[in-house]
């Protein structure tokens, strides 16, 4: 089924009876060339690019729940390429380029909206840091503009500029950044993978990884054993638990990150705005809800829900920045499980077990990485060598200390910011 304007018109006029399911619901086969554990954004994009770029289609994606029910459907949908460090900057730059062509590539409306991301700064020191960041982005070939206070006021007149604890000095504007509809991204990749012959198997939890003589042989699941020549672990917040099935202890802690949405309002916030002093960021969804979030909950947890103290902290920060939002009613809040690495940067690598690969450590920023991560992980799994854009994401950097990418400059306590 291909989506076209003509098709939408025809279906609209004929009672929408011609649409078919986006993907099949196959029974698992007893053997595949490649098994991907995890049907989130990264697992689905990996399967898609394995099929599209490498012609490999005897693949199963095994998902313990339903496709897109994890973090890929729980995030605040921000897409940007404003990373500064070598290793991250070229990777996220590549990802944004893939985002820009994604809807055509997938023939699917992911509601990509390049509305601009503005990071506010509130001190001279922060201005210097953002000027440096902007230069790094420009030298990477991405866009960045340093705004002064009046420049910010012009774009975001609803912020509180007077009598505030942290006065706004300016902001770094990244025009090509924005948002995309998170679950449509999962559905688009799922549909594209299915169309190329990949089996997407839901309600199929992996409970064990079979290894013989240092080689992966397959997985045990709640729907029986499945043999495989190669296995990729792509389970975000559950990475530590699934890697333990292969005897691995990862340098990862899982923490909850919450988000919030208000009732639908008329358009009021045109950009993604990030408050540099208060761990608060906000955008407005296409349905009109204000979508916002803040810090991690500060203790490790596998619970997919948040806690009251962080809710209060986020609301306070929002009120400090734009008191007007105090009038909006919060409709929902939710949480996802973040796979936090010590340096805040991800892992895309082989493991010591032949045929077993891992893609994890996306912390609280892995949505924007979905296209490039799948692209690079597929390359690694198909060709047995890292893609150029992801060659720094090595697992052994945490054992050797070489090649760490401490993007936030928070040292070994990244999980605590
Ligand atoms: C509140 C919140 C806000 C965020 N905001 C942003 C943002 O604005 N921008 C951004 O870039 N990132 C953001 N993120 C981070 C981003 O969502 C994650 O980094 C990214 O989605 C993680 O990768 P994924 O999509 O593959 O994970 P998931 O969707 O969690 O996929 C992993 C899948 O593995 C499955 N699984 C786990 N164990 C097993 C098993 N044993 N067997 C089979 N399947 C298994 C899970 O059910 C899950 O579906 C946010 C996250 C949260 C929670």
Task: Write structural notes for this entry.
With 417 residues, the chain is of the alpha/beta class. Helices cover 28% and strands 26% of the residues. The chain is built from ten helices and 18 strands. Strands 1, 2, 8, 9, 10, 11, 17 and 18 form an eight-stranded mixed sheet that branches. An eight-stranded mixed sheet has the order 5-6-4-13-14-15-12-16. The protein starts with a helix and ends in a 17-residue tail after the last helix. The relative contact order is 0.18. The model has no long low-confidence stretch (mean pLDDT 95). Flavin-adenine dinucleotide (FAD) binds next to helix 2 and strand 12.
Task: Summarize the structure in short.
The chain is of the alpha/beta class.
């Amino acid at each position: 089924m291909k989506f076209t304007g003509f098709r939408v018109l025809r279906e609209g006029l004929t009672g929408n009876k011609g649409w078919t399911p986006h993907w099949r619901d196959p029974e698992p086969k007893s053997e595949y060339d490649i098994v991907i554990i995890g049907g989130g954004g990264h697992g689905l994009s990996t399967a898609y690019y394995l099929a599209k770029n490498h012609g490999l289609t005897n693949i199963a994606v095994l998902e313990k729940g339903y496709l897109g029910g994890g973090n890929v459907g729980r995030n605040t949908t921000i897409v940007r390429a404003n990373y500064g460090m070598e290793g991250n900057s070229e990777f996220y730059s590549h990802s944004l380029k893939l985002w820009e062509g994604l809807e055509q590539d997938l023939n699917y409306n992911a509601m990509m909206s390049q509305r601009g991301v503005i990071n506010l700064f509130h001190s001279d020191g922060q201005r210097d840091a953002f000027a440096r960041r902007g230069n790094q982005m420009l030298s990477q070939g991405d866009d960045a503009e340093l705004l002064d206070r009046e420049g910010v006021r012009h774009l975001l007149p609803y912020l509180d500029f007077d009598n505030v604890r942290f006065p706004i000095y300016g902001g770094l504007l990244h025009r090509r950044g924005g948002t995309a509809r998170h679950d449509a991204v999962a559905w688009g990749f799922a549909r594209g993978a299915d169309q190329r012959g990949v089996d997407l198997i839901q309600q199929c939890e992996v409970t064990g990884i079979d290894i013989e003589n240092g080689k992966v042989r397959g997985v045990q699941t709640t729907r029986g054993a499945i043999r495989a020549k190669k296995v990729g672990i792509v389970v975000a917040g559950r990475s530590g638990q699934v890697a333990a099935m292969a005897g691995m202890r990862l340098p990862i802690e899982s923490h909850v990150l919450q988000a919030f949405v208000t009732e639908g309002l008329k358009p009021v916030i045109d950009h993604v705005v990030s408050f540099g002093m208060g761990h608060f960021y906000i955008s407005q969804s296409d349905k009109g809800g204000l979508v916002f979030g803040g810090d991690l909950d500060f203790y490790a947890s596998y619970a997919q829900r948040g806690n009251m103290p962080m809710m209060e902290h986020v609301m306070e920060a929002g009120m400090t920045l734009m008191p007007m939002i105090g009038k909006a009613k919060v409709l929902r809040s939710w949480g996802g499980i973040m796979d936090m690495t010590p340096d805040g940067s991800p892992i895309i690598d082989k493991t010591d077990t032949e045929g077993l690969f891992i893609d994890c450590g996306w912390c609280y920023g892995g949505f924007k990485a979905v296209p490039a991560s799948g692209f690079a992980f597929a390359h690694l799994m198909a060709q047995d060598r890292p893609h150029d854009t992801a060659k720094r994401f090595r697992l052994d950097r945490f054992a050797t200390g070489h090649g760490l990418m401490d993007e936030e400059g928070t040292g070994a306590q990244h999980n605590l910011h």
